[in-house]
């Protein structure tokens, strides 16, 4: 008899859930590869991840599943992160601690407005825009943070809450002291003020290698087998190859809006809640260039509305094995959403033009490879609909024994190692909820729950 636990998706969260269930489950993955967003695509000797991916986890999951097993195969870097300030002007990230790279009058306005903000009595912060003004002052807020928010989240900053600003692994946006702001405005030595000051990256194989330790212990994964329908009341799932499974518990890492769409008997209230969830997609324009050492550091943020990308990274600087000898690689991330559709016609050409305009590519450069990776679900948008919608969706899912987990199941801002932790937590919850007979694969629901036998 099958255990009746089904895991949907073989990204890090799904693999972690399977691992922590001791293999007492079947894993179904839509794609022909494992790893989800942590996969690496290899094209003509270049490795491209799904946007800039670097590893900086330090928790127990990071140690057990990535740092210890990959150990010698990881390269440790001190992060070199830059900002573009229009045209060919660059400075170190974050601007609030390194304003010396700005034109003098802009830098002075930033400092004066910061002082003004620090002097204000505590104000009520209702949304992310308020938070930016109150924390960093008008000029840092308007010239940088709010512009960036519009680019990457594709909504107005006052539509965002501040739940995501401080994360478990350190604030995503740093508030410097007044001394740091002033020092940053006059001293060209970079000040690091970031949740990510160092990172590691596999010496070969791209970021996707970090999935290997978890994957090597998981044998029961069916690739190319996506969910096409879920009948929640009947606890039955149909897959793209015609397989049908009954479940006692389904752990799902499928993005919530898609999961709800696939669930044929999801109530109207749940469908409406799912329709309110907002996220952004990212299209990566990836280039191989016949010149070594392209790029000022590991990655650069762009604030200018007229530049299509919000970030450009240089994978060949993460690991030289990411590009053939004598070449560099560039990955440009462009956000879009239902609020800001993307015109893909001529996108590669517009991206190359913008790279030349900002001096990252030279007119004399030879581009030896052009490739595109589309990421339909990239970033969850923390707007004010998120929390009430999640309450409705998650509580109904629990009633029908579907356990969403991972970045797009919990619908959060999970880093790779947090996705591993999410899989671990859900496995424990399911194991607690179900009584797993010691030494057998038979699983019963805890008291009061209905029992469905596996097929
Ligand atoms: C642009 C970008 C940059 C990032 N940078 C970093 C970084 O620098 N460092 C870091 O630590 N993290 C980073 N992350 C986060 C990291 O990629 C995620 O936290 C992690 O990959 C999430 O894993 P997951 O298993 O929760 O979800 P996913 O990786 O999305 O896995 C879900 C799986 O479900 C599968 N699936 C979907 N639909 C179906 C279906 N119908 N049937 C069956 N299977 C299905 C998918 O194919 C996928 O394999 C970044 C993410 C993005 C998008």
How big is the Rg?
Answer: 23 Å
What name does the CATH topology of the largest domain carry? Polyamine Oxidase, Chain A, domain 2
Strand order of the largest sheet: 7-6-17-18-19-16-20
| Overall SS class | alpha+beta
- Name the CATH class of the largest domain: Alpha Beta
Helical content class: 25-40%
* Number of separate domains: 3
Brief digest:
The chain is built from 13 helices and 23 strands.
Protein model, in words:
The protein has 455 residues and is α+β, with helices and mostly antiparallel strands. The protein is globular, with a radius of gyration of 23 Å. The strands form 7 sheets. A 7-stranded mixed sheet has the order 7-6-17-18-19-16-20. It has 3 domains: 146 residues, FAD/NAD(P)-binding domain, CATH 3.50.50.60; 158 residues, Protoporphyrinogen oxidase, mitochondrial, domain 2 (Polyamine Oxidase, Chain A, domain 2, Alpha-Beta Complex); 100 residues, no CATH class. Helix 1 runs parallel beside helix 13 and helix 3 packs antiparallel against helix 6. It contains 13 helices and 23 strands. The C terminus is likely disordered. The protein binds flavin-adenine dinucleotide.
């Amino acid at each position: 008899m099958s255990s009746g636990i089904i895991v949907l998706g073989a990204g890090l969260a799904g693999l972690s859930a399977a691992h922590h269930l001791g293999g007492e489950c079947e894993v179904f993955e839509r794609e022909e590869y494992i790893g989800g967003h942590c996969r690496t695509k290899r094209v003509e000797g270049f490795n491209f991840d799904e946007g800039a991916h670097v590893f900086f986890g330090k928790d127990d999951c990071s140690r057990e599943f990535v740092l210890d097993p990959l150990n010698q195969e990881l390269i440790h870097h001190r992060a070199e992160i830059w900002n573009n300030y229009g045209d060919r002007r660059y400075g170190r990230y974050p601007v609030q601690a390194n304003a010396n790279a700005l034109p003098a009058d802009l830098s002075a306005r930033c400092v004066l407005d910061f002082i003004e903000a620090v002097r204000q009595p505590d104000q009520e912060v209702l949304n992310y825009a308020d938070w930016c003004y109150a924390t960093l002052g008008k000029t840092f807020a308007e010239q940088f943070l709010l512009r960036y928010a519009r680019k990457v989240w594709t909504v107005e900053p006052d539509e965002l809450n501040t739940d995501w600003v401080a994360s478990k692994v350190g604030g995503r946006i740093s508030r410097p002291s007044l001394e740091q702001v002033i020092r940053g405005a006059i001293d060209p030595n970079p000040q690091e003020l970031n949740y990510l000051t160092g990172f590691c990256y596999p010496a070969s194989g791209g970021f996707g290698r970090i999935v290997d330790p978890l994957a090597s212990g998981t044998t029961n994964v069916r690739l190319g087998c996506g969910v096409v329908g879920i009948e929640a009341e009947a606890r039955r799932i149909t897959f793209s190859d015609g397989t049908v499974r009954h479940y006692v518990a389904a752990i799902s890492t499928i993005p919530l809006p898609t999961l709800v769409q696939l669930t044929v008997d999801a109530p109207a209230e749940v469908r409406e809640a799912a329709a309110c969830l907002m996220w952004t997609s990212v299209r990566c324009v990836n280039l191989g260039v016949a010149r070594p050492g392209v790029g000022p550091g590991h990655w650069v943020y762009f604030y200018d509305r007229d530049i299509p990308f919000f970030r450009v990274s240089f994978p060949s600087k993460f690991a030289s094995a990411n590009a053939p000898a004598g070449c560099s690689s560039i990955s440009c991330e462009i956000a879009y959403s239902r609020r800001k559709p993307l015109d893909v016609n001529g996108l590669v050409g517009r991206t190359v033009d913008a790279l030349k305009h900002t001096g990252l590519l030279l007119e004399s450069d030879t581009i030896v490879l052009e490739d595109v990776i589309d990421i339909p679900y990239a970033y969850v948008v923390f707007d004010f609909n998120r929390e009430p919608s999640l309450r409705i969706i998650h509580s109904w899912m629990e009633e029908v024994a579907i356990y969403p987990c991972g970045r797009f199941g919990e619908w959060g801002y999970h880093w790779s190692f947090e996705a591993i932790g999410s899989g671990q937590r859900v496995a424990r919850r399911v194991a607690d909820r179900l009584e797993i007979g010691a030494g057998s694969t038979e699983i019963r629901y805890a008291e009061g729950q209905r029992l469905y036998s596996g097929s």
